[in-house]
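SEQUENCE-TO-STRUCTURE ENTRY
===========================
What this section holds: a protein sequence and its matching fold, both as plain text.
Question of interest: how does this chain fold, as expressed in backbone structure tokens?
***
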Amino acid sequence: MSEELKQAFAPSYKHLIYKDASELKLLESVLDEMRKTKLGRQLIADAEAYGTTVEMTSGMRAIGSFDEFTKKIRLNSSYGKDGLVGTLSHEMRHSQQFQKGLRFDALLDTPTSYIQNQTIIEADASVAATEVCYELATQGNSGPLEELRKKDAHIVNPFQNEAIQGNLANGGAHKAAFYGWYTDYFMRDAYETNYCKMYRQRYQDSTHEESDKKMTRTVPVRETIDLVCQYGGKPYLGKEADDFFASEEMHTVSYERFNMIYGRIWSDPDVDYKEGADAVMMKKFGLKQRPHYGYMPAKKPPELLGPVPTVESRQAEAAQKIAETKASKAETQTAKVVNKILETKTR
């Protein structure tokens, strides 16, 4: 094959892994949609520069995943283009986050520190996916946004409501979507479970020096927020985020995970087990237990205030305003003429 033909058939993203032409076609269609948005183009460029691979995988339970150690994104091959646009945007946001130098260690970090910082990058990745899909919807392609809404309405709806009220450029839509992520206790419990799994894996592979320092490091949430929670190079979370993560609610884990974490410190010499699990966990990590997610309030996405404003709808709105303005001017002019005629007749 000539060099020209090789270039013609070369993937547009150089780190794609695929087994046949149909997978390549699907991956390219997803990338094409992302490239129609400003953030999508940046995510793709950053992931390519970072060396992040993207491959289709069958048999996944999740729609997608990103491995920060291998820099590999895996996408569920059973999903179509619309569903994968938001997923790839989410996973490429993770690639971008770790490219910036996140500090995470399930063994060394305290449970509170690791869990809070983990949820920050997950919420931010969901915000990024929503931004990409929302911009596509404003261009007339609502498919990716509606697919995302099916599973994340508690994130998408707040974003859309703030956007149509004029709070897209100032980061208000991103902020609303970020906090919407935390209303899903099922998802929060899933990442608490993930922490326990990651801790176990790290502990099994750790050295004596590392295990002696287990659960002692605190990475400030502000460090992670300032690093990743940005849109267009500007932060979308302010000082309210510090209060949010300092709140009692954000120092809770589910009943099951509370006891799993407590079991990890059973042999620690500085723990007085006569005080009881609740006192020990509060003293050591500032953690309280909450009920299983099934007993927590169900996520309730806010009602939509209106549809996504597309190019066509904005043009129609502008045309209507122009027509109304012209009609108003015509009425005013007619009134002036009539008044002038009446003034003439009364003289």
Q: What stands out?
A: The longest strand covers residues 53-57. The chain has three domains: 1-101, 106-309, 315-347. Residues 1-7 have pLDDT under 50 and may be disordered. Residues 311-345 form the longest helix (35 residues).
